[in-house]
Amino acid sequence: MGGVGGRDRLDGGFNVTAGKIDFYILDEFNYYQWYYDKPYKAYIEARGVSGEYSFSFTPPGYTAYYIIFYNPHAYTSTASVNFKAFHSYWVGYGLTQCAIHETGHFICLSHPHDYFDWEHKYSYNTSWLWDFSATPMGYATQNYRFDKLDSDAVHRGRTLSVLNATYGLLNYVKSKMTSYGFGIVPPIVYSNINASLRSSALAVRDFSTFDSLDNYKTGVGNSLDAYKYALTANSTLFSSLLRLTNRIQDANGKPLINAKVMVTYPNGTVRTLYSNSSGYFTVTNAPWGNFTYTIYWQGTKVSGAVTSLENANITRTIPVSVYSLSFIFKDSAGAPLYASPTEITLTAPNGTRLRLTSFIINQAQNGTWAVSSIIWQNNNVVPPELFMSINSNAVWSINCRVYSIDFTESFKDSRGVALYISPSSFKLICPNGTTTFALSVGSYYLQNGTYRWKSVVWRGIDVVPSPSPTFDPTGGSPTVKCRVYPLTVYVKDYLTLAVSGADVGIYLPDGTLLTSGRSGGGGEIAFSQLPISDYKVEVTFLGLKTIAALSLTSDKTMEIRILLSIPMLVIICIVAGISIGGTLYLKKRK
Question: Is residue 353 in a domain?
Answer without folding.
Answer: yes
